[in-house]
Design a protein that fits this description.
The protein is an alpha/beta fold and 383 residues long. Helix content is 42%, strand content 12%. It has three domains: 72 residues, no CATH class; 191 residues, Rossmann fold, CATH 3.40.50.450; 54 residues, Arc Repressor Mutant, subunit A (Orthogonal Bundle).
Length: 383
C-alpha cells in the first residue's frame, strides 16, 4: 500500500496505536475521508487536534469537529484497554504481525484498528477463509444449507467467516464448530457486547475455538450503519463470499457486492424459485461474475488454487452398457425388455448388417446384457 502497510514510518508506533484506539470511539467505521487524514497526518496528530479547539487539517477542515469532539471524554482509552484485558482480547493495528493485510485492499476505508478476542490468531484464521452469509429470517432449507456448507468447508481446512447474527450467520458458525473447525464472527458492536442476546453462548464458544473481531471499541452498541459497514470487513477479510439465502433487500447482498468491488469471488446457493427468501440470491446469480454453487467443493474450486482445487465432476449412477461403443450400444437399445426379437428384426431396427448384428449380439450376451431365447433376443432382467 502507498502508506507502507501501516508501518507508521517516522512515528511513535505505540502512540499511534493508542490514538487509533481512541479514534475508533470517535469515528464511525468506513469513514474514508478520516482514514485518509490518518494516513497523511497520523492518528496521534489528529487526536491532538481533536483535543484542541482549532480546525482539523486537510479535507477534515470542511467538517465540523464538534461531531467528533462530542464523544471525547465519554470513556477514557485506559478504560477501553482495561476492559479488553478483562475479556482476554487484543487490539491490532495495521503493521502489527497479526494484522490481516488483505484488509488493506479497503484503502482509506480500512479499519483504524481491530478489537479481537479468541483462541485463534486472526491473521492465521483469515489466510484461507470464506464468508458464508444470508438472511436472518432464513428458512429451514437455508439453515441446513449454511450449516452443511460451513461444516464441509471447515473439514477441508477453510475458516468460515460470518456476522454472528441470527439465521444463516448462526447456522454457518455452528456448522464449522460442529466439526471443530475455525470460525470468525465479525461484529457490529463492541467485543464485550453480546449481540444478538440470544447468541451469547454461541459467541462465547466462537471466542473459545475461533475469534471474534470488531472495529468498534468495548461497550459500543450496534446500529444499522454499523451493520452495513461491518459487511465490508467480512468481504475484505475473505477470499470469497457465499450467499445462502437473501431477499431482494438484504444486508447479505451488500456483503456480496462489496466482495465483487474488492475483486473477491461472489457465489450464491439457489433456492426454490418461488421463495422470497431466495429472490435476492437469484438476482445476484444473474449478475456478471457471480457463480452458482451447491457444495463446499465448488466453493473451494472458486477460491482455492487454480488448477489444483478442482471440484470432482458429478455424474449420475452408472448403468450397464454405458461404456459400450456406439455401434454396439445401438444394437442394445433395440433389444426389448419384454418379449423378444429375432436377429433379423434387430438388424432392421438398428440399421445394421445381419452379420455385424449377430457379432454385436454375441458381445452383449458375453457381457450378460442380453439373453437368447427360443423366441429371439431380449434384455437381461426383463419380465
Amino acid at each position: 500500500m502507498p502508506w507502507g502497510d501501516g508501518d507508521f514510518p517516522g512515528r511513535d508506533v505505540e502512540g499511534e496505536r493508542g490514538a487509533r484506539a481512541v479514534l475508533s470511539r470517535l469515528v464511525e467505521p468506513g469513514d474514508a475521508v478520516f482514514g485518509r487524514a490518518v494516513r497523511v497526518y497520523g492518528a496521534a496528530r489528529l487526536l491532538r487536534d481533536l483535543r484542541g479547539h482549532g480546525p482539523l487539517p486537510g479535507e477534515l477542515a470542511r467538517r465540523d469537529p464538534a461531531g467528533y469532539r462530542v464523544r471525547l471524554g465519554a470513556r477514557e482509552p485506559d478504560e477501553d484497554l482495561a476492559r479488553l484485558a478483562e475479556v482476554g482480547g487484543s487490539f491490532l493495528v495495521p503493521g502489527d504481525p497479526g494484522w490481516p493485510t488483505q484488509l488493506d485492499d479497503l484503502g482509506d476505508a480500512r479499519p483504524l484498528g481491530l478489537w479481537t478476542r479468541g483462541a485463534t490468531p486472526l491473521r492465521l484464521a483469515a489466510l484461507r477463509s470464506v464468508a458464508v452469509v444470508g438472511a436472518r429470517a432464513c428458512t429451514e432449507y437455508g439453515a441446513h444449507v449454511a450449516g452443511t456448507l460451513a461444516a464441509e468447508l471447515a473439514e477441508a481446512g477453510w475458516t468460515v467467516v460470518s456476522g454472528g447474527a441470527y439465521g444463516v450467520d448462526g447456522a454457518a458458525h455452528r456448522g464449522a464448530l460442529a466439526v471443530r473447525g475455525p470460525t470468525v464472527a465479525v461484529l457490529a458492536c463492541g467485543i464485550d457486547v453480546n449481540y444478538p442476546r440470544g447468541h451469547e453462548r454461541l459467541l462465547a464458544r466462537i471466542a473459545e475455538e475461533g475469534v471474534l473481531v470488531t472495529e468498534l471499541p468495548p461497550g459500543a452498541h450496534p446500529t444499522r450503519y454499523r451493520f452495513i459497514e461491518r459487511n465490508r470487513v467480512i468481504a475484505a477479510l475473505t477470499r470469497g463470499t457465499v450467499v445462502v439465502e437473501a431477499a431482494l433487500r438484504s444486508g447479505a447482498l451488500v456483503s456480496a457486492r462489496r466482495a465483487a468491488l474488492l475483486g473477491r469471488q461472489v457465489m450464491g446457493v439457489p433456492g426454490p424459485i418461488g421463495s422470497p427468501s431466495s429472490a435476492g440470491v437469484h438476482m445476484l446469480l444473474r449478475e456478471p461474475g457471480s457463480v452458482l454453487v451447491t457444495r463446499a467443493a465448488e466453493v473451494i474450486e472458486q477460491v482455492g488454487v487454480i488448477g489444483d482445487d478442482l471440484a470432482p465432476v458429478l455424474a449420475g449412477p452408472s448403468r450397464p452398457g454405458d461404456d459400450l461403443p456406439p455401434e454396439i450400444r445401438r444394437i442394445l437399445d433395440v433389444v426389448p425388455w419384454r418379449g423378444a426379437l429375432s436377429t433379423a428384426a434387430i438388424a432392421h431396427e438398428a440399421g445394421s448388417a445381419p452379420a455385424a448384428t449377430r457379432r454385436r449380439l454375441d458381445v452383449l450376451a458375453a457381457r450378460e446384457l442380453v439373453d437368447r431365447t427360443s423366441k429371439g433376443w431380449r434384455r437381461r432382467g426383463g419380465a
